[in-house]
Amino acid sequence: QVQLVESGGGLVQAGGSLRLSCAVSGRTFSTYAMGWFRQAPGKEREFVAHNSWSGGNLDYADSVKGRFTISRDNAKNTVYLQMNSLKPEDTAVYYCAARRARGSYYYPSPNAYNYWGQGTQVTVSS
């Protein structure tokens, strides 16, 4: 069973930075496409960032472009989300997700992913 464990969330003032990490168990991390999503209270889970299994095909939600960066370290089985210039509207529980299959898929959809972490809370104060 593949397990994803997020860390790095916390409370930060507007304009600050945080780096989230997601450690993935198993030996096939390098074959997974990875995504970050977030969910604020009373809202649906929304796409934040995507990184294909090859490390390419990077994409971001319009609301975070230019501020967030997704990256991966296959040697450490870890994907990161560097978040800069944080805003109060970035407050949410952040989840990482992994997709094991290749082929075409619609990566902004949560349904494209097979495995999910438990989430880490990010709170941005104004």
Give short descriptive properties of this protein.
126 residues; 4-stranded antiparallel β-sheet; 7-stranded mixed β-sheet; 0% helix; mainly beta
Question: What series of H and E elements makes up the topology?
Answer: EEEEEEEEEEE
- In percent, how helical is the residue content? under 10%
Mean pLDDT across every amino acid position? 94
Strand content: over 45%
For the record, give the distance between the C-alpha atoms at the N and C termini, rounded to a whole number: 40 Å
> What is the count of helical runs?
0
Q: Which structural class should the secondary elements be placed in?
A: mainly beta
Largest sheet: 7 strands, mixed
Uncertain stretches: none
Compute the number of strand runs. 11
Radius of gyration: 14 Å
**Shape, please?**
globular
Notes on the protein architecture:
The protein has 126 residues and is mainly beta. 0% of the residues lie in helices and 46% in strands. It contains no helices and eleven strands. It has strands at 4-7, 10-13, 18-24, 33-39, 46-51, 59-60, 68-73, 78-83, 92-99, 115-116, 120-125. Strands 2, 4, 5, 6, 9, 10 and 11 form a seven-stranded mixed beta sheet that branches. Strands 1-3-8-7 form a four-stranded antiparallel beta sheet, with no helix packed on it. The radius of gyration is 14 Å and the shape is globular. The model has no long low-confidence stretch (mean pLDDT 94).
